[in-house]
Amino acid sequence: MNLLGRKALVTGAARGIGRGCALELARAGADVAINDRAASAEAESLVAEIQALGRHAALIDGDAFARASCQEIVARAIQALGRIDILVSNPAFSRRGDYLDYDPDLFEKTLQGTLTAGFHMSQFVARHMVQRQQRGKIVFISSVHARIPFARAAAYNAAKAGLNHLAKTLAAELLPQRINVNVIEPGWIDTPGEHATFGSDKIAEAAPSLPWGRLGQPEEIGKAAAFLCSDDADYITGTSLLVDGGLALRAAIPAAEPPRT
């Protein structure tokens, strides 16, 4: 319970990676304000799960893509928990498409929902931490897309790469306040969104071909977040933690073993 007594805000928390992060922070002892665009059965069930772990949970609905809404989300989370020690910023929007035909409005929306939203939410939380003269932890959920230029994902690739650089810049600026700012880069994670994008059959077919032989699970990203938000990671800031089961190394795997001499 190395996060016992800490107060966390997790955005995009109702399902997938956000849900995994919220649950693992709670299992580590944190009270959690969970944010999603609107109240839903999924969000309410997450609140119940966290409460069953003996931790306090508050559902904060609101659009994390819009600045005014971000400010309200942070204010309501502070009201519910008393303060915010931890932010796990997990808003994202992704639609794949061929670059030559890609809708420019969709490109702007992807940057807004993945990069700009992270800036807004983290700025309000960081201001709160600095005002209280408290140390804190900010973790951005990025993606292996930040380092691998997957085809048909130009907008998402650019947004996640930008998010990584934003986090490093914030880490540098917040050094005097001892606010740790780090990034997690998930690989292919088994989430409802991935099933909606690719289809369950295609995912089941592709999983054995991945370097680790399977997709990652949301709780594995959550455990990485819990570590980065703990005192065990006090000396870690401005870094990107790749949690991808070796996906970024796939090109380095030989197609066949060379003959031994």
UniProtKB/TrEMBL annotation:
Keywords: Oxidoreductase. Its EC number is 1.1.1.47. This is Glucose 1-dehydrogenase. GO terms for biological process: monocarboxylic acid metabolic process. The lineage of its organism: Bacteria, Pseudomonadati, Planctomycetota, Planctomycetia, Pirellulales. Gene3D superfamilies: NAD(P)-binding Rossmann-like Domain. Belongs to the short-chain dehydrogenases/reductases (SDR) family. The keyword Oxidoreductase applies. GO terms for molecular function: glucose 1-dehydrogenase [NAD(P)+] activity. Coiled coil: none annotated. It comes from Anatilimnocola aggregata. InterPro entries: NAD(P)-bd_dom_sf, Sc_DH/Rdtase_CS, SDR, SDR_fam.
